[in-house]
Write a structure and sequence with these properties.
The structure is a single chain. A hairpin with a 2-residue loop joins strand 4 (65-73) and strand 5 (76-81). Helix 4 (101-111) packs parallel to helix 5 (145-154). The chain has one domain. The chain is globular and about 45 Å long. It is built from 5 helices and 7 strands, in the order H-E-E-H-E-E-E-H-H-E-E-H. The chain has helices at residues 3-8, 42-47, 85-90, 101-111, 145-154; strands spanning 23-26, 31-36, 51-62, 65-73, 76-81, 114-124, 131-137.
């Protein structure tokens, strides 16, 4: 693995993304985040009924970004969760290096075979008929994402 891949949090291989033994775990939250890029998935989003939905996040390649966060409802992609990856990569030359905590968190969960699932709401917003999905994500008044990852990874998957 090259040093740039390590610094950017890129995995050595994409073999993990092709596996089918992920465990889906419900994660509560109080910070509302919006699933972006819904216009590319407009037909899929429009086919869903308005109201509560469960959104599962997956680490997935999106162009050159090997750690984009894809949002899925009922095993169909409905968009992306915005991250600050582009800022990371654009500022490497200036010496300003940091990682988006959500990408780091998802990388930890992905390595452990876990896909987090969040409560969401599909609703009409703004333009007439425009639909968007909000999810309840762990926020500022909840444990740090690293603590949540540790808890999820160490949890017994066979517990009721």
């Amino acid at each position: 693995m090259a040093i740039w891949d390590w610094l950017l949090g890129r995995s050595e291989s994409s073999a993990r993304g092709n596996r089918d033994d992920y465990r889906v775990v419900d994660v509560p939250g109080t910070w509302t985040r919006t699933v972006a890029g819904s216009s590319s998935y407009e037909d899929t989003v429009n086919a869903l009924p308005l109201g509560p939905v469960q959104v599962t996040l997956r680490l997935q390649q999106r162009g050159s970004d090997t750690h984009a966060l894809a949002a899925y409802v009922q095993e169909q992609q409905v968009g992306w969760l915005a991250t600050q990856r582009s800022v990371i990569e654009s500022r490497l030359a200036s010496g300003f290096l940091w990682r988006d905590p959500t990408v780091t968190w998802m990388t930890q969960l992905d390595a452990a075979g876990i896909r987090p699932r969040f409560q969401g709401l599909l609703r009409i917003a703004g333009d007439p008929g425009r639909r968007l999905i909000n999810i309840d994500f762990p926020g500022r008044n909840e444990p740090r994402l690293s603590a949540i990852a540790k808890q999820l990874i160490n949890a017994d998957p066979n517990r009721g």
